[in-house]
Structures are given as C-alpha cells and as structure tokens.
Design brief:
The protein has a two-stranded antiparallel ribbon. The chain is mainly alpha-helical. Strand 1 and strand 2 (38-43) form a beta hairpin. Helix 1 runs antiparallel to helix 2 (50-63) and helix 2 packs antiparallel against helix 3 (65-90). It is built from 8 helices and 2 strands. Helix content is 74%, strand content 6%. This is Probable queuosine precursor transporter.
C-alpha cells in the first residue's frame, strides 16, 4: 500500500470516529470556561467536531474534492450502521442483574435515532459546503493563503451545521426551544474559536503530509 493511500485511510478513519462518537455523547452538555469572563455551554459531541472540517480540508488539499466527498459518504454510511445497531440493542430487554437497565440505556441512547436525522443532514450539507468553498477559495487565491481557505470554508460550514442540528433538536423537543438562540451562539462561537486555535495544527499537518508524499515520490 502506498504512503498516500495509508494517509488517506488514516484521515478517513479519524474523521469517521469523531463523527460517530460525537453522535453518541451529544446528550451531555458541558461548560467550558475557556476565558475568565466567558464559559461556553455546548454539547459534548461538539467539543472535537471542528476537527472534522480540518480533516476534510486536508483531504481536499492533497486528494481533491472527489476523494473528500467519498470520505464524507463513508462516515455517513458508518453512522447509519451504528445507529441501526443502537436502535436494535435499545429494543432488547436487559437482564435483572444488568448494571445498565432498560430505562438508563434508553435515556442515554434512545433518542439517538431522532438526533441522528438532524446530525446526518447537518453533517452532510455542511461538509459538502466546506469542500466546495475550500476548493473555490483555493482557486481564487491561486493556491496562496492556506489559512484563508481553511478558516473561511470552515467558518461558514460550522454555522450551517450548528444552526441545522440545534434547530432540529429543538423542533423534536430534545432541546428546550427557549435555549435555541443561546445554544447556537455558544456552540458556534466555541467551534469558531477552536478552529482559529487549530490553524497552526492545520499548517503542521499540511507540512507533515507534504513531506511524506514528497518522500514517496522520490522513492
């Protein structure tokens, strides 16, 4: 297997894991006091979610839109597979000695099917927008200003994703409707802040991947 194929497979694996785990833990909301004067309140599933856009940007940078979209489709397929498994297990009856009874399991995972609809819809739309906008900015800037195409595409895509998923969760009464605006603002501001902080990570990742690919081409 070529080094380029290994890197692509690894990026897709990380991408899928973050997406799936995020959907499993989304019902826990956490407070992140990243500033003395402000505390972000958001779903635990959103904590590492901005990294998914960094990954698709890396794939688009080195492998193009088609392979980036293929990675998104793989993650979506795995998401569906995990959702089906969880729905099946949720309908099984727990034994009398099980540490996790039916009610506890259902409270944690039972709403996964509803959240899944909003999550997959938001995820797919936002990721496709990110890939398209990233490629467009790259052509517009003639391969210059790496941080512009990465942060610009991610900033727009995260706003779309956050608005869709939280609005749908509020519509299904999984989240309180009166918290809709604050939750969107808190979640998006955190994701945007995280994205800006991860800019050096994006540059380092590009440098490392480029070094490995260049080393492969010389062998």
């Amino acid at each position: 297997m070529l080094v380029s194929d290994k890197i692509y497979a690894l990026l897709c694996a990380f991408f899928s894991v973050i997406i799936i785990v995020g959907n499993l833990v989304y019902q826990k909301f956490v407070a992140l006091p990243l500033f003395p004067f402000h505390t972000f309140e958001l779903s635990a599933g959103a904590v590492l979610y901005p990294l998914t856009f960094l990954i698709t940007d890396l794939i688009t940078e080195f492998y193009g839109k088609e392979r980036a979209n293929f990675c998104v489709k793989i993650a979506m397929t795995m998401n569906i597979f995990v959702a089906v498994i969880i729905i099946f297990i949720d309908h099984l009856t727990a034994t009398s000695w099980s540490k996790i009874d039916n009610a506890t399991f259902h409270n944690v995972f039972g709403l996964f099917s509803i959240a899944f609809l909003g999550s997959v819809l938001a995820f797919y739309i936002a990721q496709r927008v990110d890939i398209i906008v990233y490629s467009w900015i790259r052509r517009l800037t003639q391969d210059r200003f790496l941080w512009v195409r990465s942060n610009g595409s991610t900033a727009l895509s995260l706003l779309i994703d956050t608005s869709i998923v939280i609005s749908l969760l509020a519509f299904f009464k999984i989240l309180p409707v009166d918290r809709l605006g604050p939750l969107i603002m808190n979640s998006y501001s955190y994701k945007l802040f995280f994205t800006l902080l991860s800019t050096p990570l994006f540059y380092v990742s590009v440098m490392l991947i480029r070094h490995r690919l260049n080393g492969e081409s010389k062998t």
